[in-house]
Design goal:
The complex is a heterodimer. Chain A is an alpha/beta fold. In chain A, 36% of the residues lie in helices and 23% in strands. Chain A contains ten helices and ten strands. In chain A, helix 5 packs across helix 6, helix 6 packs parallel to helix 7 and helix 7 packs across helix 10. By secondary structure, chain B is mostly helical. Chain B has a single domain, classed as MetI-like (MetI-like fold, Orthogonal Bundle). Chain B contains twelve helices and no strands. Classes of the chains: A alpha/beta, B mainly alpha.
Protein backbone atom coordinates (compact mmCIF):
# COMPACT_ATOMS: atom_id res chain seq x y z
CA UNK A 1 0.00 0.00 0.00
CA UNK A 2 1.37 3.37 -1.07
CA UNK A 3 -0.03 6.39 0.74
CA UNK A 4 0.58 10.02 -0.30
CA UNK A 5 -0.10 12.41 2.59
CA UNK A 6 -0.22 16.04 1.41
CA UNK A 7 2.90 15.33 -0.64
CA UNK A 8 4.50 18.44 -2.14
CA UNK A 9 7.62 19.02 -4.21
CA UNK A 10 9.19 22.38 -4.96
CA UNK A 11 12.22 22.24 -7.22
CA UNK A 12 15.15 24.60 -6.72
CA UNK A 13 14.11 27.56 -8.82
CA UNK A 14 10.64 27.60 -7.33
CA UNK A 15 8.61 25.28 -9.59
CA UNK A 16 5.82 23.59 -7.61
CA UNK A 17 5.84 20.22 -9.37
CA UNK A 18 3.58 18.53 -6.82
CA UNK A 19 0.99 20.36 -4.73
CA UNK A 20 -0.49 18.77 -1.66
CA UNK A 21 -1.27 15.39 -3.21
CA UNK A 22 -3.16 12.89 -1.06
CA UNK A 23 -3.69 9.47 -2.61
CA UNK A 24 -3.88 5.77 -1.71
CA UNK A 25 -2.64 3.07 -4.07
CA UNK A 26 -3.66 -0.47 -3.12
CA UNK A 27 -1.44 -3.52 -3.52
CA UNK A 28 -1.73 -5.15 -6.93
CA UNK A 29 -3.38 -2.17 -8.59
CA UNK A 30 -2.70 -1.14 -12.21
CA UNK A 31 -2.75 2.65 -12.06
CA UNK A 32 -2.25 4.97 -14.99
CA UNK A 33 -1.37 8.64 -14.60
CA UNK A 34 -2.26 11.02 -17.42
CA UNK A 35 -1.60 14.70 -17.91
CA UNK A 36 0.31 17.16 -20.07
CA UNK A 37 4.09 17.40 -19.94
CA UNK A 38 5.04 19.37 -16.88
CA UNK A 39 1.86 18.40 -15.02
CA UNK A 40 3.92 16.55 -12.39
CA UNK A 41 3.53 12.94 -13.57
CA UNK A 42 7.26 12.13 -13.47
CA UNK A 43 7.63 13.84 -10.12
CA UNK A 44 4.70 11.88 -8.67
CA UNK A 45 6.40 8.65 -9.71
CA UNK A 46 9.86 9.62 -8.51
CA UNK A 47 8.81 10.62 -5.00
CA UNK A 48 7.65 7.04 -4.45
CA UNK A 49 11.22 5.71 -4.60
CA UNK A 50 12.80 8.90 -3.33
CA UNK A 51 14.66 9.80 -6.53
CA UNK A 52 13.00 13.19 -6.10
CA UNK A 53 12.97 14.36 -2.45
CA UNK A 54 9.74 15.71 -0.98
CA UNK A 55 9.61 19.27 0.28
CA UNK A 56 6.35 18.80 2.19
CA UNK A 57 4.03 16.04 3.40
CA UNK A 58 5.06 12.40 3.14
CA UNK A 59 4.83 9.22 1.11
CA UNK A 60 4.54 5.96 3.02
CA UNK A 61 5.06 2.51 1.59
CA UNK A 62 3.48 -0.13 3.83
CA UNK A 63 3.66 2.45 6.60
CA UNK A 64 7.37 3.26 6.10
CA UNK A 65 8.08 6.93 5.43
CA UNK A 66 10.14 7.58 2.29
CA UNK A 67 10.81 11.16 3.32
CA UNK A 68 12.40 10.23 6.63
CA UNK A 69 14.26 7.13 5.48
CA UNK A 70 18.04 7.16 5.90
CA UNK A 71 20.19 6.33 2.89
CA UNK A 72 20.43 2.66 3.85
CA UNK A 73 16.70 2.35 4.42
CA UNK A 74 16.02 4.23 1.21
CA UNK A 75 18.11 1.71 -0.73
CA UNK A 76 16.11 -1.09 0.87
CA UNK A 77 12.85 0.61 -0.19
CA UNK A 78 14.19 1.12 -3.72
CA UNK A 79 15.24 -2.51 -3.97
CA UNK A 80 11.56 -3.48 -3.77
CA UNK A 81 10.50 -0.97 -6.43
CA UNK A 82 11.37 -1.65 -10.06
CA UNK A 83 11.57 1.30 -12.41
CA UNK A 84 11.11 1.56 -16.18
CA UNK A 85 12.17 4.66 -18.09
CA UNK A 86 11.09 6.50 -21.24
CA UNK A 87 14.57 6.29 -22.76
CA UNK A 88 15.16 2.79 -21.32
CA UNK A 89 18.32 3.90 -19.46
CA UNK A 90 20.27 0.79 -20.41
CA UNK A 91 24.06 0.79 -20.51
CA UNK A 92 24.21 0.26 -24.26
CA UNK A 93 27.84 -0.79 -24.32
CA UNK A 94 27.41 -3.85 -22.15
CA UNK A 95 25.41 -7.04 -22.50
CA UNK A 96 21.69 -7.44 -21.97
CA UNK A 97 22.40 -9.82 -19.08
CA UNK A 98 24.66 -7.29 -17.33
CA UNK A 99 21.88 -4.73 -17.66
CA UNK A 100 19.32 -7.07 -16.14
CA UNK A 101 21.73 -7.97 -13.35
CA UNK A 102 21.67 -4.30 -12.40
CA UNK A 103 18.31 -5.25 -10.90
CA UNK A 104 20.26 -7.48 -8.49
CA UNK A 105 22.53 -4.65 -7.25
CA UNK A 106 20.88 -4.63 -3.86
CA UNK A 107 20.14 -8.34 -3.48
CA UNK A 108 23.47 -9.71 -4.68
CA UNK A 109 25.66 -7.92 -2.15
CA UNK A 110 28.18 -5.14 -2.65
CA UNK A 111 31.39 -7.15 -3.09
CA UNK A 112 29.83 -9.67 -5.45
CA UNK A 113 28.30 -6.92 -7.58
CA UNK A 114 31.53 -4.93 -7.56
CA UNK A 115 33.51 -7.78 -9.11
CA UNK A 116 30.63 -9.15 -11.22
CA UNK A 117 30.94 -12.40 -9.27
CA UNK A 118 27.25 -13.20 -9.16
CA UNK A 119 25.76 -16.27 -7.51
CA UNK A 120 24.10 -18.73 -9.89
CA UNK A 121 20.77 -17.87 -8.20
CA UNK A 122 21.07 -14.21 -9.20
CA UNK A 123 21.87 -15.16 -12.79
CA UNK A 124 18.90 -17.53 -12.76
CA UNK A 125 16.61 -14.72 -11.56
CA UNK A 126 17.90 -12.48 -14.36
CA UNK A 127 17.41 -15.21 -16.98
CA UNK A 128 13.85 -15.89 -15.79
CA UNK A 129 13.11 -12.16 -15.99
CA UNK A 130 14.33 -12.17 -19.61
CA UNK A 131 12.18 -15.21 -20.34
CA UNK A 132 9.13 -13.46 -18.96
CA UNK A 133 9.51 -10.67 -21.53
CA UNK A 134 10.43 -13.20 -24.19
CA UNK A 135 13.89 -11.94 -25.06
CA UNK A 136 16.19 -14.42 -23.31
CA UNK A 137 17.94 -15.35 -26.56
CA UNK A 138 19.56 -11.89 -26.54
CA UNK A 139 21.14 -12.34 -23.08
CA UNK A 140 24.74 -12.06 -24.28
CA UNK A 141 24.18 -9.43 -26.99
CA UNK A 142 25.27 -5.84 -26.46
CA UNK A 143 22.24 -3.71 -25.58
CA UNK A 144 23.10 -1.25 -28.38
CA UNK A 145 22.35 -3.97 -30.93
CA UNK A 146 18.65 -4.18 -29.94
CA UNK A 147 15.69 -2.26 -31.36
CA UNK A 148 13.82 0.23 -29.18
CA UNK A 149 11.04 -2.23 -28.31
CA UNK A 150 13.57 -4.91 -27.40
CA UNK A 151 15.51 -2.44 -25.24
CA UNK A 152 12.37 -1.52 -23.33
CA UNK A 153 11.66 -5.22 -22.69
CA UNK A 154 15.19 -5.50 -21.28
CA UNK A 155 14.28 -2.50 -19.12
CA UNK A 156 11.24 -4.40 -17.85
CA UNK A 157 13.36 -7.51 -17.22
CA UNK A 158 15.81 -5.39 -15.18
CA UNK A 159 12.89 -4.18 -13.04
CA UNK A 160 11.60 -7.76 -12.67
CA UNK A 161 15.04 -9.00 -11.58
CA UNK A 162 14.58 -6.92 -8.44
CA UNK A 163 11.62 -9.20 -7.60
CA UNK A 164 9.74 -6.01 -6.82
CA UNK A 165 6.43 -5.39 -5.09
CA UNK A 166 5.93 -2.21 -7.09
CA UNK A 167 6.82 -1.24 -10.64
CA UNK A 168 7.04 2.40 -11.66
CA UNK A 169 7.00 3.10 -15.39
CA UNK A 170 7.76 6.66 -16.51
CA UNK A 171 6.39 7.14 -20.04
CA UNK A 172 7.50 3.62 -21.00
CA UNK A 173 6.18 3.79 -24.58
CA UNK A 174 6.84 7.43 -25.48
CA UNK A 175 9.93 6.46 -27.52
CA UNK A 176 8.22 3.56 -29.32
CA UNK A 177 5.98 3.12 -32.37
CA UNK A 178 2.27 2.24 -31.82
CA UNK A 179 2.39 -1.56 -32.35
CA UNK A 180 5.51 -1.89 -30.17
CA UNK A 181 3.83 0.30 -27.56
CA UNK A 182 1.02 -2.21 -27.28
CA UNK A 183 3.47 -5.10 -26.90
CA UNK A 184 5.19 -3.30 -24.02
CA UNK A 185 1.91 -2.26 -22.38
CA UNK A 186 0.59 -5.82 -22.60
CA UNK A 187 3.82 -7.07 -20.99
CA UNK A 188 3.23 -4.66 -18.10
CA UNK A 189 -0.41 -5.70 -17.82
CA UNK A 190 0.50 -9.39 -17.81
CA UNK A 191 3.15 -8.85 -15.13
CA UNK A 192 0.66 -6.92 -13.04
CA UNK A 193 -1.95 -9.68 -13.30
CA UNK A 194 0.28 -12.75 -13.08
CA UNK A 195 2.66 -11.57 -10.36
CA UNK A 196 0.33 -9.18 -8.56
CA UNK A 197 2.93 -6.40 -8.70
CA UNK A 198 1.48 -2.94 -8.08
CA UNK A 199 2.09 -1.15 -11.39
CA UNK A 200 2.07 2.62 -11.81
CA UNK A 201 2.44 3.95 -15.35
CA UNK A 202 2.74 7.49 -16.74
CA UNK A 203 1.22 7.84 -20.18
CA UNK A 204 0.26 10.69 -22.39
CA UNK A 205 -1.73 8.71 -24.94
CA UNK A 206 -5.32 8.67 -23.68
CA UNK A 207 -6.45 5.66 -25.69
CA UNK A 208 -3.67 3.54 -24.20
CA UNK A 209 -4.66 4.76 -20.74
CA UNK A 210 -8.26 3.65 -21.30
CA UNK A 211 -7.28 0.25 -22.69
CA UNK A 212 -4.77 -0.73 -20.01
CA UNK A 213 -5.68 1.28 -16.92
CA UNK A 214 -7.97 -0.12 -14.25
CA UNK A 215 -7.74 3.13 -12.40
CA UNK A 216 -6.78 6.45 -13.97
CA UNK A 217 -5.39 9.50 -12.24
CA UNK A 218 -5.32 12.93 -13.88
CA UNK A 219 -2.66 15.51 -13.05
CA UNK A 220 -2.73 19.16 -13.96
CA UNK A 221 -0.32 21.83 -12.72
CA UNK A 222 1.01 19.54 -9.99
CA UNK A 223 -2.43 18.78 -8.59
CA UNK A 224 -4.60 15.69 -8.65
CA UNK A 225 -7.63 16.60 -10.78
CA UNK A 226 -9.14 13.18 -11.50
CA UNK A 227 -9.20 9.81 -9.80
CA UNK A 228 -11.54 7.16 -11.12
CA UNK A 229 -12.00 4.06 -13.23
CA UNK A 230 -11.09 3.85 -16.89
CA UNK A 231 -14.77 3.38 -17.76
CA UNK A 232 -15.75 6.65 -16.11
CA UNK A 233 -13.02 8.59 -17.86
CA UNK A 234 -14.83 10.01 -20.86
CA UNK A 235 -13.84 12.81 -23.18
CA UNK A 236 -15.16 15.47 -20.79
CA UNK A 237 -12.90 14.19 -18.04
CA UNK A 238 -9.85 14.27 -20.31
CA UNK A 239 -10.75 17.80 -21.43
CA UNK A 240 -10.68 18.75 -17.77
CA UNK A 241 -7.28 17.19 -17.25
CA UNK A 242 -5.77 18.70 -20.38
CA UNK A 243 -7.50 22.05 -20.02
CA UNK A 244 -8.35 22.05 -23.73
CA UNK A 245 -10.14 20.05 -26.42
CA UNK A 246 -8.53 16.80 -27.43
CA UNK A 247 -6.65 16.56 -30.71
CA UNK A 248 -5.35 13.71 -32.82
CA UNK A 249 -1.96 14.16 -31.08
CA UNK A 250 -3.44 12.92 -27.83
CA UNK A 251 -4.32 9.48 -29.14
CA UNK A 252 -2.46 6.82 -31.04
CA UNK A 253 -3.73 6.02 -34.52
CA UNK A 254 -6.96 4.01 -34.50
CA UNK A 255 -5.62 1.56 -37.03
CA UNK A 256 -2.53 0.70 -35.01
CA UNK A 257 -4.62 0.28 -31.87
CA UNK A 258 -7.09 -1.97 -33.64
CA UNK A 259 -4.35 -4.05 -35.25
CA UNK A 260 -2.53 -4.54 -31.98
CA UNK A 261 -5.60 -5.49 -29.98
CA UNK A 262 -6.70 -8.20 -32.46
CA UNK B 1 7.63 33.37 -50.29
CA UNK B 2 9.08 35.92 -47.92
CA UNK B 3 9.66 39.42 -49.25
CA UNK B 4 13.08 40.60 -50.32
CA UNK B 5 15.05 40.61 -47.08
CA UNK B 6 17.87 43.07 -46.86
CA UNK B 7 21.16 41.52 -47.92
CA UNK B 8 23.75 41.26 -45.19
CA UNK B 9 26.97 43.22 -45.45
CA UNK B 10 30.06 41.12 -46.02
CA UNK B 11 31.81 40.64 -42.67
CA UNK B 12 35.02 42.56 -42.14
CA UNK B 13 38.29 40.67 -41.80
CA UNK B 14 39.83 43.06 -39.30
CA UNK B 15 40.05 40.48 -36.51
CA UNK B 16 41.53 37.82 -38.78
CA UNK B 17 44.12 40.22 -40.18
CA UNK B 18 45.05 41.35 -36.70
CA UNK B 19 45.52 37.72 -35.62
CA UNK B 20 47.69 36.96 -38.65
CA UNK B 21 49.84 40.01 -37.94
CA UNK B 22 50.18 38.96 -34.30
CA UNK B 23 51.23 35.43 -35.30
CA UNK B 24 53.84 36.80 -37.73
CA UNK B 25 55.29 39.09 -35.06
CA UNK B 26 55.43 36.17 -32.61
CA UNK B 27 57.37 33.99 -35.06
CA UNK B 28 59.78 36.83 -35.79
CA UNK B 29 60.35 37.53 -32.11
CA UNK B 30 60.95 33.82 -31.36
CA UNK B 31 63.38 33.46 -34.28
CA UNK B 32 65.41 36.47 -33.14
CA UNK B 33 65.42 35.29 -29.53
CA UNK B 34 66.69 31.77 -30.27
CA UNK B 35 69.22 33.25 -32.68
CA UNK B 36 68.23 31.36 -35.81
CA UNK B 37 71.01 31.45 -38.38
CA UNK B 38 69.47 31.28 -41.89
CA UNK B 39 72.56 29.53 -43.25
CA UNK B 40 72.10 26.73 -40.70
CA UNK B 41 68.56 26.16 -41.92
CA UNK B 42 69.84 25.99 -45.50
CA UNK B 43 72.48 23.46 -44.43
CA UNK B 44 69.89 21.23 -42.79
CA UNK B 45 68.72 19.21 -45.83
CA UNK B 46 72.32 18.45 -46.75
CA UNK B 47 73.10 17.26 -43.22
CA UNK B 48 70.04 15.05 -43.14
CA UNK B 49 70.93 13.57 -46.51
CA UNK B 50 74.47 12.82 -45.34
CA UNK B 51 73.25 11.13 -42.16
CA UNK B 52 70.63 9.18 -44.11
CA UNK B 53 73.27 7.95 -46.57
CA UNK B 54 75.66 6.84 -43.82
CA UNK B 55 72.90 5.03 -41.90
CA UNK B 56 71.00 3.31 -44.68
CA UNK B 57 72.95 3.33 -47.96
CA UNK B 58 76.72 3.62 -47.71
CA UNK B 59 77.95 1.81 -45.66
CA UNK B 60 74.32 1.14 -44.58
CA UNK B 61 72.99 -0.75 -41.57
CA UNK B 62 75.24 -3.25 -39.83
CA UNK B 63 73.09 -6.32 -39.26
CA UNK B 64 75.47 -7.83 -36.71
CA UNK B 65 74.06 -5.15 -34.37
CA UNK B 66 70.50 -6.49 -34.82
CA UNK B 67 70.41 -8.70 -31.67
CA UNK B 68 71.60 -5.83 -29.47
CA UNK B 69 69.12 -3.40 -31.03
CA UNK B 70 66.24 -5.86 -30.68
CA UNK B 71 67.13 -6.49 -27.06
CA UNK B 72 67.10 -2.74 -26.38
CA UNK B 73 63.80 -2.29 -28.19
CA UNK B 74 62.19 -5.12 -26.22
CA UNK B 75 63.34 -3.43 -23.02
CA UNK B 76 61.76 -0.19 -24.29
CA UNK B 77 58.48 -2.02 -24.94
CA UNK B 78 58.61 -3.57 -21.49
CA UNK B 79 59.10 -0.31 -19.69
CA UNK B 80 56.40 1.35 -21.82
CA UNK B 81 54.03 -1.48 -20.91
CA UNK B 82 54.82 -1.47 -17.19
CA UNK B 83 54.51 2.31 -17.11
CA UNK B 84 51.18 2.22 -18.96
CA UNK B 85 49.68 -0.41 -16.65
CA UNK B 86 50.88 1.54 -13.62
CA UNK B 87 49.35 4.74 -14.95
CA UNK B 88 46.11 3.01 -16.00
CA UNK B 89 45.50 1.43 -12.59
CA UNK B 90 46.15 4.62 -10.65
CA UNK B 91 44.30 6.88 -13.08
CA UNK B 92 40.97 5.07 -12.62
CA UNK B 93 40.22 6.23 -9.06
CA UNK B 94 41.67 9.67 -9.78
CA UNK B 95 39.53 9.95 -12.92
CA UNK B 96 36.36 9.11 -10.99
CA UNK B 97 37.15 11.58 -8.22
CA UNK B 98 38.12 14.17 -10.83
CA UNK B 99 34.75 13.97 -12.61
CA UNK B 100 32.34 16.69 -11.48
CA UNK B 101 29.29 14.45 -11.83
CA UNK B 102 30.80 11.83 -9.51
CA UNK B 103 32.49 13.87 -6.78
CA UNK B 104 31.74 17.43 -5.74
CA UNK B 105 32.90 20.42 -7.77
CA UNK B 106 35.54 21.43 -5.21
CA UNK B 107 37.16 18.01 -4.92
CA UNK B 108 37.17 17.46 -8.67
CA UNK B 109 38.85 20.83 -9.21
CA UNK B 110 41.67 19.96 -6.80
CA UNK B 111 42.19 16.57 -8.45
CA UNK B 112 42.13 18.09 -11.95
CA UNK B 113 44.78 20.63 -10.99
CA UNK B 114 46.93 17.85 -9.53
CA UNK B 115 46.60 15.90 -12.79
CA UNK B 116 47.46 19.04 -14.79
CA UNK B 117 50.54 19.54 -12.64
CA UNK B 118 51.69 15.97 -13.30
CA UNK B 119 51.13 16.34 -17.02
CA UNK B 120 53.18 19.52 -17.14
CA UNK B 121 56.40 17.46 -16.84
CA UNK B 122 57.43 15.29 -19.80
CA UNK B 123 58.68 11.77 -19.06
CA UNK B 124 62.30 12.78 -19.66
CA UNK B 125 62.12 15.53 -17.07
CA UNK B 126 60.42 13.23 -14.55
CA UNK B 127 63.13 10.60 -15.16
CA UNK B 128 66.09 12.97 -14.78
CA UNK B 129 64.69 15.06 -11.94
CA UNK B 130 62.87 12.48 -9.80
CA UNK B 131 63.08 8.83 -10.83
CA UNK B 132 66.81 8.40 -11.60
CA UNK B 133 67.81 10.02 -8.28
CA UNK B 134 65.35 7.69 -6.48
CA UNK B 135 65.62 4.42 -8.43
CA UNK B 136 69.04 4.85 -10.02
CA UNK B 137 69.94 4.54 -13.69
CA UNK B 138 68.04 1.82 -15.57
CA UNK B 139 64.64 0.69 -16.76
CA UNK B 140 62.90 0.96 -13.36
CA UNK B 141 63.37 4.72 -13.37
CA UNK B 142 62.07 4.86 -16.94
CA UNK B 143 58.96 2.81 -16.18
CA UNK B 144 58.16 4.94 -13.13
CA UNK B 145 58.59 8.15 -15.11
CA UNK B 146 56.27 6.88 -17.83
CA UNK B 147 53.78 5.66 -15.23
CA UNK B 148 53.66 9.00 -13.42
CA UNK B 149 53.19 11.00 -16.60
CA UNK B 150 50.51 8.53 -17.80
CA UNK B 151 48.53 9.05 -14.57
CA UNK B 152 48.26 12.71 -15.53
CA UNK B 153 46.99 12.19 -19.07
CA UNK B 154 44.87 9.09 -18.44
CA UNK B 155 43.33 10.53 -15.27
CA UNK B 156 42.26 13.68 -17.10
CA UNK B 157 40.81 11.70 -20.02
CA UNK B 158 38.99 9.32 -17.68
CA UNK B 159 37.42 12.24 -15.84
CA UNK B 160 36.34 13.85 -19.11
CA UNK B 161 34.82 10.66 -20.48
CA UNK B 162 32.92 10.13 -17.22
CA UNK B 163 31.55 13.68 -17.36
CA UNK B 164 30.15 12.92 -20.81
CA UNK B 165 28.12 9.84 -19.88
CA UNK B 166 24.40 9.30 -20.32
CA UNK B 167 22.91 9.92 -16.84
CA UNK B 168 20.02 7.50 -17.49
CA UNK B 169 21.76 4.28 -16.39
CA UNK B 170 22.98 6.06 -13.24
CA UNK B 171 19.38 6.87 -12.35
CA UNK B 172 18.43 3.27 -13.12
CA UNK B 173 21.13 1.91 -10.81
CA UNK B 174 20.04 4.25 -8.03
CA UNK B 175 16.41 3.24 -8.56
CA UNK B 176 17.42 -0.42 -8.20
CA UNK B 177 18.71 0.35 -4.72
CA UNK B 178 22.44 0.38 -5.48
CA UNK B 179 24.85 2.06 -3.05
CA UNK B 180 27.08 4.81 -4.36
CA UNK B 181 30.03 2.55 -5.26
CA UNK B 182 27.79 0.08 -7.09
CA UNK B 183 26.08 2.91 -8.95
CA UNK B 184 29.52 3.92 -10.28
CA UNK B 185 30.45 0.30 -10.97
CA UNK B 186 27.37 -0.58 -13.05
CA UNK B 187 25.88 2.76 -14.08
CA UNK B 188 29.13 4.50 -15.09
CA UNK B 189 32.02 2.06 -15.57
CA UNK B 190 30.50 -0.12 -18.33
CA UNK B 191 29.59 3.04 -20.23
CA UNK B 192 33.12 4.44 -20.16
CA UNK B 193 35.30 1.33 -20.07
CA UNK B 194 35.59 0.69 -23.83
CA UNK B 195 36.71 4.25 -24.42
CA UNK B 196 39.09 4.24 -21.46
CA UNK B 197 40.72 0.94 -22.39
CA UNK B 198 41.14 2.25 -25.92
CA UNK B 199 42.93 5.27 -24.45
CA UNK B 200 45.16 2.97 -22.39
CA UNK B 201 46.29 1.25 -25.58
CA UNK B 202 46.71 4.58 -27.31
CA UNK B 203 48.77 5.78 -24.36
CA UNK B 204 50.86 2.61 -24.69
CA UNK B 205 51.61 3.54 -28.30
CA UNK B 206 52.73 7.01 -27.19
CA UNK B 207 54.73 5.57 -24.29
CA UNK B 208 56.76 3.37 -26.65
CA UNK B 209 58.08 6.54 -28.25
CA UNK B 210 58.71 8.10 -24.87
CA UNK B 211 60.52 4.94 -23.77
CA UNK B 212 62.81 5.12 -26.79
CA UNK B 213 63.80 8.65 -25.79
CA UNK B 214 64.26 7.77 -22.12
CA UNK B 215 67.26 5.58 -22.89
CA UNK B 216 69.15 8.69 -23.97
CA UNK B 217 69.16 9.91 -20.37
CA UNK B 218 70.04 6.43 -19.08
CA UNK B 219 66.60 5.25 -18.06
CA UNK B 220 66.71 1.98 -19.98
CA UNK B 221 65.75 0.79 -23.45
CA UNK B 222 66.96 1.33 -26.99
CA UNK B 223 67.54 5.05 -26.54
CA UNK B 224 70.85 4.19 -24.87
CA UNK B 225 72.07 2.32 -27.97
CA UNK B 226 70.98 5.21 -30.20
CA UNK B 227 72.76 7.77 -28.08
CA UNK B 228 75.98 5.71 -27.81
CA UNK B 229 76.24 4.79 -31.51
CA UNK B 230 75.51 8.32 -32.71
CA UNK B 231 77.85 10.07 -30.31
CA UNK B 232 80.64 7.71 -31.42
CA UNK B 233 79.73 8.27 -35.09
CA UNK B 234 78.92 4.57 -35.58
CA UNK B 235 76.20 5.42 -38.09
CA UNK B 236 75.88 1.87 -39.46
CA UNK B 237 74.94 0.62 -36.01
CA UNK B 238 72.63 3.60 -35.43
CA UNK B 239 70.94 2.84 -38.75
CA UNK B 240 70.14 -0.69 -37.59
CA UNK B 241 68.71 0.65 -34.33
CA UNK B 242 66.57 3.23 -36.15
CA UNK B 243 65.15 0.56 -38.46
CA UNK B 244 64.30 -1.62 -35.46
CA UNK B 245 62.58 1.29 -33.67
CA UNK B 246 60.50 2.22 -36.71
CA UNK B 247 59.44 -1.30 -37.65
CA UNK B 248 58.59 -2.45 -34.13
CA UNK B 249 56.66 0.75 -33.41
CA UNK B 250 54.62 0.38 -36.60
CA UNK B 251 53.92 -3.27 -35.80
CA UNK B 252 52.73 -2.52 -32.26
CA UNK B 253 50.63 0.44 -33.46
CA UNK B 254 48.90 -1.74 -36.03
CA UNK B 255 47.98 -4.46 -33.55
CA UNK B 256 47.02 -1.99 -30.86
CA UNK B 257 44.90 0.07 -33.24
CA UNK B 258 43.03 -3.03 -34.36
CA UNK B 259 42.36 -4.03 -30.76
CA UNK B 260 41.18 -0.52 -29.93
CA UNK B 261 38.63 -0.56 -32.75
CA UNK B 262 37.37 -3.97 -31.64
CA UNK B 263 36.93 -2.73 -28.08
CA UNK B 264 35.04 0.42 -29.04
CA UNK B 265 32.81 -1.15 -31.66
CA UNK B 266 32.24 -4.53 -30.03
CA UNK B 267 32.17 -7.89 -31.77
CA UNK B 268 29.21 -7.04 -34.03
CA UNK B 269 31.01 -4.10 -35.62
CA UNK B 270 29.23 -4.38 -38.97
CA UNK B 271 26.05 -2.76 -37.75
CA UNK B 272 27.70 0.47 -36.65
CA UNK B 273 27.45 2.32 -39.95
CA UNK B 274 23.72 1.67 -40.33
CA UNK B 275 22.99 2.55 -36.71
CA UNK B 276 24.97 5.77 -36.84
CA UNK B 277 22.04 7.28 -38.72
CA UNK B 278 19.45 6.30 -36.13
CA UNK B 279 21.79 6.87 -33.18
CA UNK B 280 24.13 9.76 -33.93
CA UNK B 281 25.92 9.15 -30.64
CA UNK B 282 27.29 5.96 -32.18
CA UNK B 283 28.92 7.90 -35.01
CA UNK B 284 31.94 8.63 -32.83
CA UNK B 285 32.90 4.96 -32.79
CA UNK B 286 33.40 5.00 -36.55
CA UNK B 287 36.20 7.49 -36.33
CA UNK B 288 37.56 6.16 -33.05
CA UNK B 289 39.06 8.21 -30.28
CA UNK B 290 40.89 11.39 -31.17
CA UNK B 291 44.09 12.60 -29.64
CA UNK B 292 43.50 15.28 -27.08
CA UNK B 293 46.36 17.51 -25.95
Amino acid sequence: MIRFENASVTYPGGVHALKDVTLDIRDGEMLIIVGLSGAGKSTLIRVINGLVPLSGGDVKIDGVSVRHAGSRQLREIRSKIGMIFQTFNLVKRTTVLNNVLMGRLYGAGTLRSLFAWYRPEDIEIAMQALERVDIVEKAYVRASNLSGGQQQRVGIARALAQQPKIILADEPVASLDPPTSHVVMRDLQRINRELGITTIVNLHFLDLAKVYGERIIGMRGGELVYDGTAAQADERVFRDIYGRSLTADDVMSEAATAAATL
Amino acid sequence: MAGAAERPHPPTHAKRNLALLGAALLVGWAAVTVDVDPSEILDLPGGVALLFREMFLDPGPDWSYLPTALEGMIESLQLAWVGTVLGAILSIPLGFVGAKNVSSGGVSNVVRQLLNAIRAFPEVVLAVAIMIPIAGLGPVAGALAIGLHSIGTLGKLTAEVIEGIDPGPVEAARAAGGGSILVQRWGVLPQVLPEIVAFWLYRFEINIRAAAVLGVVGAGGIGFSLQQTISFHRYSLAGTAVIVVVLVTIAVDTVSGWVRRRIIEGAGAKRVDADAIAHPELAEVVTGPVERP
